[in-house]
Amino acid sequence: GYFLVLGSLVILVHQFFGELALATPDLKRLPGFAKFHLGNKGEKIAYLSSTLGIFGAILAYLIVGGEFLTELLSPFFGGGNLVWTLFYFSLGAILIFFGIKAISKVEFWGLVLFFIILIAIFFREQPFLKLENLFPAPDFAYLFLPYGAILFSLWGVTLIPEVEEMLKERKKLLKMIIPISILIPIFVYLFFIYLVLGITGPKTTETALTGLRAVLGDGIVSLTLLFGLLTTFTSFTTLGLTLKKIFWYDLKMDKNLAWLITCFVPLILFLIGVRQFIPVIVFIGGVMLGIDGILILLMYRKINPKQILVYPLLLILFGGIIYQIIYFLK
Question: What parts of the sequence cross the membrane (predicted)?
């Protein structure tokens, strides 16, 4: 149910942003779009929401990616979580420095290996799946808690300008690519939830994959950790490149300074103790991405004022922001 409702919302917001991207001069990211369509106030809000949101997302992928790499390699080479997180960070920072072509290659092969590993888990671990694990007793006190996490998992607005640049003379394909690129993750996430929750049930851990070791043993868990590592690493690098370009293109910052700020702010947050994955993604998804979505809808209303779907979507996103803020203030 969550994925049906929020998936539809995400597809619509992304489609609207795709239309905005095609109607706006190139070499802009969200703050640049906001200035073009909403003026200086919109630009300032977009700078705040997009930079804080992407910083938070990069931090989240650094946290979970470092955990996966530690679980995967520490048994063989030693070293604690800090060592392997710094190694993960270093590889990502190098790719962010060199840019889009290198990252696109990593993403492609990461996606291929992702599907291979997921299918292998499905066929090998059928005996461990328990259907009763998929239907735990509902706790209505937390009915809306998954909102921020699901929005975070499906959101890809920051990548749309990147895709537009990659398409070059074939930009009209953007409208077809956007819904497909969201529907595929929805089905994959549902399949992944079915596998992990069906296998581990109430023993499911915060990062999902690390809790599989006690049930499945080292072999298959190494495959799942490799899958998790690849998917988080590609997200870490693509979002890092996007934030670097916000500073570089929109703020007219020096390219190397933009890279330093992009990479090292999340690292500093990690080093001073911000290391809880779920709270980070819930807050970023519910609040910062909600603000981004509202800005996109307000911009879209400028180029297509007759689109009535904008208004219910605005209410949902605004309500989500209020809920997440109240939840974190409790």
Answer: 6-24, 45-64, 76-99, 106-123, 143-161, 173-199, 219-244, 256-274, 280-300, 309-329
